[in-house]
Design brief:
Low-confidence stretches: none
Distance between the termini: 27 Å
Mean pLDDT: 89
Number of helices: 10
Radius of gyration: 27 Å
Shape: elongated
Strand order of the largest sheet: 2-7-5-6-3-4
Order of helices and strands: HEHEEEEEEHHEHEHEEEEEEHEEHEHH
Length: about 375
Amino acid sequence: MSKLDELIKELCPDGVEYRSLGDVVNILDNLRRPITKKDRKPGVYPYYGANGIQDYVEDFIFDGMFLLVGEDGSVINTDNSPILTWAEGKIWVNNHAHVLSEIKQIALLRFIYFALQNTDVSSIVRGVPPKINQKSLRDIKLPIPPIPVQKEIVQILDKFTSLEAELEAELEAELEARKKQYEYYRDSLFKFEGQRNFLVQWLRLSEIADIGTGSSNTNEELEKGDYPFFVRSQEVRQKNDFEFDETAIITSGDGVGVGKIFHYVEGKYALHQRAYRMHITNECILPRYYFYYMKSTFLQYIEKNSFHSSVTSIRRPMLKNFPVPVPSIAEQERIVAILDRFDALVNDITKGLPAEIEARRKQYEYYRDKLLTFKEKIS
């Protein structure tokens, strides 16, 4: 039996009391104050908002240990837990984050921090933009075991958090290294001139592909649909109807994703009216080979040839004139095989390093949730 099990058996064998957050912490919202950007004087003290540190200023209004809960804007995470920031020392907080401090001998603030990570607050978020008001925050019910149990849970989760963060940092570093390795090999594979002893034909994109745009708008997307819907971002949306049934390479026609966003699709799909599709029609080139070549070189090409207004945009002639090297089919197949392996390792969430990182996060969440689940004591 673990130390935690022994403490629970001794101190709360029949369950624990669930109490309102407002009864177990101090909420210091009346002390927080915003400073407009023009009035902020640079300094060393963190200036916090709903999502963490916004700036550094010359003065502070809080000094100690605090838990900040995002009040408005992006106030909840994807798992519906609140946006939380742990803050210590001298800080300034604006009126976009609730400020919580500890009430001695009732609840450890660090325990509350972990307990709120395990709390779904979607039902108390109101308004546009979404907001967690102080009354809703005060009324959140949390399990409050005896202080020795809280201390043991905090010690376990702090240790687990540290280990998880260390492992995740190592995996992130490994992933970044693999990405750089992938990009290096990808780029080197496409350096044909003067480095190959076989013939490479150069063709314009218009000579090897049918180029076009879609007719759909972003507001037509559905939460769940039958077909992928490609817009001007890396995220793939959904629709119930399709416009094309083919193998194609998709790229953004304007916006911040120009030259950076690429999709490879086989089958039925819908397409945004300002995204381009390239359907390879020339049998001398493999669609997947062209997909990798475009990812490797198109950004440089677009930076030299793009039109600029409020955002960077692509014009059809630029795409038509994009030069593409066409080596033998055997060489294309070799390049595709190499890059497919790298792509799976780096980008596929179902395998490789990204999946390992996601597994570590889920493991942490599983143990945290298990430690913070208590039977409610019936008085």
